[in-house]
Amino acid sequence: MRKPQLSSRRGKALQRVLIAAAALFLANRFLLVGLLLPMQALRYCEEREGTGRTSVICRDWPQEAGWNQLVYLTENENATMLAGVKLNLFGWSGGLVSTLDCSVSAPLQGGWMSLPQEGSKRLFYVFGRVDDPAVARVEILLQYK
Q1: What span, in angstroms and rounded, lies between the C-alpha atoms of 47 and 39?
Q2: pLDDT tens across 28-44, in order?
Q3: Is 145 exposed, middle or buried (0-12, 13-18, 19+ CB in 10 A)?
Q4: Is the distance from CB of 85 to CB of 38 less than 8 angstroms?
């Protein structure tokens, strides 16, 4: 006759950690909450926009837009994306996204994105991609009312 094995404190702690990790994984995957890293929110922005996997060109922390906002410029051979991710109560989440379709060959492609600031001010980002080596200089004129 077998003795019933008593569970130790270490075993119970390990079981609780595994249950919490599984719950966090399910919440991340299905509810899109509880993202621990800003790159996870950026990957969801890529999925939502349909760009495929991109690589980060640069990251900006615009303190004018808030302490919890990051802006990433990413690209691959078919797309260039400017995406804002935000830290909130439920973890990192994807925010405003502007995408350029670069699958069609063009010498110059450009886009813009606007982030709200405190009050009625706005922060504008202008970005683009130059595929023609003959383009040496780009001038941008922005007028907003």
Answers
A1: 12
A2: 788 777 788 999 999 99
A3: exposed
A4: yes
